[in-house]
Structure formats: C-alpha cells, structure tokens
Specification:
By secondary structure, the protein is an alpha+beta fold. It folds into 3 domains: 5-74, Orthogonal Bundle (Arc Repressor Mutant, subunit A), CATH 1.10.10.10; 79-187, Phosphorylase Kinase, domain 1 (2-Layer Sandwich); 191-292, Transferase(Phosphotransferase) domain 1 (Transferase(Phosphotransferase), domain 1, Orthogonal Bundle), CATH 1.10.510. Helices cover 45% and strands 19% of the residues. It has 10 helices and 12 strands. The protein has helices at residues 5-11, 14-26, 35-42, 46-58, 76-89, 131-139, 148-168, 202-223, 259-278, 284-292, and strands at residues 62-65, 71-74, 95-102, 106-113, 116-123, 176-180, 183-187, 191-193, 225-226, 235-238, 243-245, 252-253. A 5-stranded antiparallel sheet has the order 3-4-5-7-6. Strands 8-10-11 form a 3-stranded antiparallel sheet. A hairpin with a 5-residue loop joins β1 and β2 (71-74). It starts with a helix and ends in an 8-residue tail after the last helix. Bound molecules: adenosine-5'-diphosphate (ADP) and magnesium ion (MG). Magnesium ion binds next to loops.
Amino acid sequence: MTALLAEILDRVEKNDVIVLYSIERNLTRYKYVPLEVIERVSRLPPSSIQKSIKRLTELKLVRRRLGNFSGYTLTYRGLDVLALNSLLRRGYITRLGDKIGVGKESDIYIAESPRGLVVVKLHREGRTSFSKVRRVRSYAQEIEGEDWIRVVKTIGEREFKALVELRSNKALVPEPVTYNRHAVVQEYIRGVDLYKVEDLDEETARATLADVIETLRIAYTKVGIVHGDLSQYNVLISEDGRGYVIDWPQYVYKGEESSGELLFRDVKYITSYYERKFGVSVDAGRVLKYVKGEINEKPL
Ligand SMILES: Nc1ncnc2c1ncn2[C@@H]1O[C@H](COP(=O)(O)OP(=O)(O)O)[C@@H](O)[C@H]1O
Ligand SMILES: [Mg+2]
C-alpha cells in the first residue's frame, strides 16, 4: 500500500528535497543522474545523501538504475513532491488534503490555502500516449521526444495560461491561482460533475447550459480558442446552480485546421447531452453561430 501524498510530504526532509531537486535539474543531461553528480550539485555530505536516497527510494519518489550507467531518476510522485513543496514553501497552499478526483489524465487534490479551499491538479499525461498529449504535442512545438517531465510541465503551464485568459474575459471557469511544474492551483468549485447529476429542474438545466454556451463564446470570440474536449465530464454544476467548464489544456486556437470540427463536436456533445438527460431542446446550429459570434441573440 503506497502512502498518501500528504503523508509523504510530511515524511520528506529538507535534504531529501535538495537531492530530488539535484536530480531534477540534471535530467536534461542524464536519463539517470549519477551519484557523483548528485553529490557535486547538492553539496551535501555523502552520508546524508545516502540517507536521503534510501528514504526517497522507499517512498518511491526516485527510481534507481543499476549497471554501467547507474543513477537516479524521478518518478511522478517525485515530481509531485517537488511541485507541492514549492507551493507550500511559497504559501500558495498551506496544507494538502485528500485526492478528490482521478481524471484519466490527472490527479486532483484539495488543499487549504490563505484564500480558502483550492484544487491542485497534478498533470499525468506523459504516463501514456492519450489523445490529449498528442494534440497538445502537435501544437506546442516545445514538446519534443518522449520526455514526460517536459510534457506534463508544458501542459500545466498551458492550462494555467488558458484559465488566466478565460477568467480575465469573464468566462465561468475556476479562477487560476498559480502553477508550479505540472501542478495547477485553481479555485475549488463546490459542486457536482455534470455526468453525476441525475435530476436538474428545468430552470437550472437551461441556466447551466446557457453558462457553458456563454463560456464557449467568450473562449472563441475573445480568447480565440476552442475547448476541444467538452462533454458532461468536463462541466461542473456548482452548488449555486452555475455551469463551469473545466479541463482546458488541450484547447486549440481558432485559426488551427481542426478547430472548426472540434467546436462543432463540443457544441453537439453538450447540447445533445442536455437534451437527452434533462429534456432541454435547443438548436445546435444556432448555438454554433452564437458561439462563433455570427449572431448575438442568445440561443436559450
Ligand atoms: N476546480 C475544481 N473544483 C472542483 N472539482 C474539480 C476542479 N477541477 C477538477 N475537479 C474534479 O476533478 C475531476 C478531474 O478534473 P479534470 O480537470 O477534468 O481533469 P482530467 O484531465 O483528468 O479529466 C473533475 O471531473 C472534477 O470532479
Ligand atoms: Mg476532465
């Protein structure tokens, strides 16, 4: 049984973090960072490094390779600890809480912060070659090769920046707080995933769909992007009856070739879900025109 991330954070000592950081910094030059390099970069005495390496290995934060080119690399948990440690040290979060969600491409934690509860989204896309990675990869030129750390860091930064742009244009998305490495800190929305909502009164159903449509319109006309993965799994219905669109890192720019097709799909998926599940009828063609800014009359 692996320890909870919050427990791991408690058990990791200052020197362990220095060792982790020394490994991280050198992963651009080595696939497995040799012990000599860790010793040189960390400036810690060898005995202390030995102790840290032992603990980090037990906690599964680093992985060792034996043989001619022996050395150490980070695991996902190792990168998590580095990111969370920075967030804690800088005061963006004060305590890590439980995992509240496992998306197919991220782990979501709740955390306490000076501004209240926040969510820490730890990106995991490098783990496998999901479509999101491929899509982000083909548009974010900086991602090359199979370097998973660079992949997840780029995706984290991409999501944070999209949220900043969307929020500053008044779209109904979680307010971004900061990001560090592959971790995106954002406002915690108290509510339920749309796919889990069984009953919604007609008024709330219409209002939340209208919220989603408004966000798509702001994204397209003001920010110039298309979500690209919209469905009942990426909409949150808040306790106060609003519809938030979450999970943005795979967005495409509206000038890109696939954007038209993706926008059509986003609109079709969400309108047909509302129709099927809650009986909200709306003309998807008109929604599409409204989202693109071709008409101004609200479709709902
Ligand atoms: N800001 C948030 N507030 C509350 N819950 C959230 C928030 N962001 C994500 N979640 C929860 O975590 C789940 C996965 O998040 P999401 O951003 O969709 O990641 P993934 O890429 O893994 O699908 C969501 O379905 C939701 O239940
Ligand atoms: Mg999602």
